[in-house]
Write a structure and sequence with these properties.
The structure holds two protein chains of two kinds. By secondary structure, chain A is mainly alpha-helical. Helices cover 75% and strands 1% of the residues of chain A. In chain A, 49% of the residues are buried. The chains are: A mainly alpha, B mainly alpha.
């Protein structure tokens, strides 16, 4: 068998896919929940970065995994809340505000890094704890499945669990109902007494929570240090994944899995003389095609008369 | 005075936001620097003191300026285009490929290379444009995806087909002399692309504010329903704004390749497209103001690197300042109470005048 195929159909590859997927799935859930509330959050990049940084920092100074978890989450949620404050209270455009906060997170983390360690590249001089890996009893002994599913970082299991949490929040709680109502028709939601801005803020803070977990995984699971710009665009890939997944919990999970497969594949073939760039391009192309198909479908659902159809595009979308 | 404030409120608000940003930087320097006054001098005066640093300000401003104008055209039509980064990257890659594989006199080679960059950028902008106009697909997501596709495609093109293996690092073949923009001040990297960028920004100003199509773009952005009832073809305007935007960004990238590096050397995306968003915000989507905004941004950046080099303040401080400025400028409610008070006072005063007159 071809050595490349051999390595791809190995349990190591499947393991790597799950590992690579984790820091995409968590922010993707974050993007999805704000999308459902009708706002676009492109600040996940900054949220992850700042959570990754504060997690490492607190772990280095306190030696407590629990405190660093709290610090990371608090930092991520705080950044999301700042975005909410500027967007909802001060009427800043959410996209421009998010761009500003991404910039802030990238600059601020390196700035603080330099002040604390005198190093601008990474926190290698600070000893960071990592979240432990978990071997699932019973399953770990199942031949192929055990090798793939068991032995991951605990945050990977948390990420998968979050898909369920996301589902419950969005579809089984009053808050979720309000989030969806606000997203579908804010005026109608307001008319039945829902505080639209408050619900949007909650959705943003939830996205900060999901994103923060993703950031913590990067600096305290994937590796054990913080390095500059370590999110490397994952906050933006998350937008692609949630779009591709139609903002549904399972859809977002599967889309993140696809991105995981492609990225793991690109890492595997990087050593061979195959243009990995073209392979890495695929998920973005797929997302663009999916976006086109989604839009076509929503367009078809609208009145069939041509003139009216045109009017609807103009009004609803432009 | 109060009338003046009301009339130029957005401009004054922008200036206040910038002033707060600058104040934050002074504060940060005092907080962390062991020699604050020296660091302040490096940061604010450093970029102006030597010929090469001043040149750095201008050469950095050129691509940012073009991306800023590119984004402003889309923003004016109320299109959330963050695709300048991708358009810049792919256009520069394709135009570099063209320039290194053809031979012709400079009088043809230079304009053709620029034209190809513009066309590739335009084509790149066309995709999200038509998806938005015809299908209502989010241009934000579409341009974001196009950015990644541009990056990987451009990287593939350069690394696998036009890579100079003798260079020791990943760059394209050097552009022939006939496809380069000359540098006009010895000892600096000031190149003609900088002058061209300013000219293009001014032309875009005339296009937006003094032509029918430009008016249609602005009207579509400020009031779409009104624009449609006025007979403006919104589908055309949306596509056109994205196409122009892509072309402008594409030109910004190739200028830098032709004027400074002489090769395509971006292994990571240079980020000018994002800087373009920043200057479009600071310049309030006005091409002439964007010229100054991009010079201001480059001035801050060069100041940041000078103070980083000469003193103990990390250059990333500039990112923090930028984000403060952007947040304050985009926050429409910022200072709105002040405006409200002035408006009321002005109205009361006018009322009094009327009363005493009658």
């Amino acid at each position: 068998m071809n050595p490349l195929l051999k390595s791809i159909f190995s349990t190591e590859f499947a393991f790597a896919v799950i590992r690579v997927m984790t820091p995409l799935l968590l922010p993707a859930l974050g993007v999805a929940i704000t999308n459902l509330a009708g706002s676009v959050n492109i600040a996940l990049e900054g949220i992850m970065l700042i959570a990754a940084f504060f997690g490492v920092l607190v772990s280095a100074f306190t030696g407590s995994l629990f405190l660093s978890l709290l610090a990371g989450i608090a930092a991520g949620v705080a950044l999301a809340a700042i975005l909410g404050y500027f967007h909802l209270k001060l009427k800043a455009d959410i996209i421009l505000g998010a761009i500003a906060l991404n910039l802030f997170a990238a600059g601020f983390t390196i700035f603080m890094l330099f002040l604390i360690t005198g190093d601008k590249g990474s926190t290698s001089s600070l000893k960071s704890l990592v979240f432990p890996s978990v071997h699932i009893p019973l399953i770990r002994h199942i031949p192929v499945l055990g090798d793939i599913v068991s032995g991951h970082n605990v945050l990977t299991y948390v990420a998968v669990l979050m898909v369920l949490v996301f589902y419950i929040i969005v579809y089984k709680t009053p808050l979720g109902l309000r989030i969806r109502a606000v997203g579908q028709n804010p005026d109608a939601a307001a008319s039945v007494g829902i505080k639209v801005d408050r619900i949007k803020l909650y959705a943003l803070m939830l996205s900060g929570f999901f994103g923060a977990l993703g950031g913590l995984y990067l600096s305290m699971g994937y590796v054990s240090w913080f390095s500059r710009d370590m999110t490397a665009g994952r906050g933006f890939i998350a937008i692609a994944a949630s779009t591709l997944g139609g903002n549904l919990p399972m859809g977002t999970f599967l889309a993140s899995l696809l991105f995981g497969v492609v990225n793991a594949f690109a890492i595997y073939i990087a050593s061979l003389n195959v243009p990995s760039e073209l392979i890495q391009m695929i998920p973005y192309l797929v997302t663009l095609v999916a976006l086109t198909i989604f839009s076509l479908r929503t367009l078809r659902k609208r009145p069939a008369k041509k003139e009216e159809k045109k009017l609807h595009v103009d009004e609803a979308a432009l | 005075m109060e009338k003046f404030i009301l009339k130029n409120f957005t401009l004054i608000r922008t200036i206040i936001a910038i002033a707060i940003g600058v104040a934050v930087s002074v504060l940060l320097i005092y907080l962390i620097s062991a020699t604050p006054s020296g660091s302040l001098k490096y940061f604010f005066v450093g970029p102006l003191l030597s010929k090469s640093r001043l040149s750095n300000v201008f050469e950095m401003a050129a691509p940012i300026m073009l991306c800023g104008v590119a984004i402003a055209v889309a923003f004016q039509a109320e299109q959330f285009n963050i695709g300048a980064e991708g358009a810049l990257y792919i256009s520069a890659a394709v135009a570099t490929a063209f320039a290194v594989s053809t031979h012709m006199p400079a009088i043809l080679h230079i304009p053709l290379t620029i034209l190809i960059a513009a066309c590739v950028g335009a084509a790149w902008g066309f995709v999200p444009g038509i998806l938005k106009a015809k299908l209502g697909a989010s241009e934000l997501v579409a341009t974001l995806m196009m950015n990644y596709i541009a990056y990987f495609l451009g990287l593939y093109l350069i690394n696998y087909h036009f890579r100079d293996k003798s260079a020791g690092y990943l760059v394209s073949y050097a552009l022939p002399e006939t496809a380069r923009l000359g540098q006009f001040i010895p000892g600096t990297r000031m190149h003609w692309g900088i002058i061209l960028a300013v000219i293009i920004a001014v032309l875009v100003y005339f296009f937006l504010y003094h032509t029918t199509t430009g008016y249609e773009i602005r009207m579509t952005g400020s009031n779409r329903k009104f624009a449609r009832f006025g007979g403006i073809n919104i589908i055309k305007v949306v596509i056109l704004s994205q196409v122009i935007s892509g072309a402008l960004a594409g030109v910004g990238g190739i200028f830098e390749v032709m004027g400074i590096h002489g090769r395509f050397n971006w292994q990571t995306s240079p980020g000018y497209g994002w800087d373009g968003v920043i200057v479009a915000i600071i310049g309030r989507n006005h091409p002439i103001l964007i010229i100054f905004a991009s010079l201001f941004l480059s001035y801050l950046r060069v100041g940041g690197s000078v103070v980083n080099l000469m003193a103990d303040v990390p250059t990333e401080m500039v990112s923090v300042i930028q984000s403060v400025i952007i947040l304050l400028i985009t926050a429409e409610a910022f200072l709105s109470r002040w405006k409200y008070r002035i408006t009321v006072r002005e109205a009361e005063r006018e009322e009094k005048i009327h009363e005493s007159a009658s």
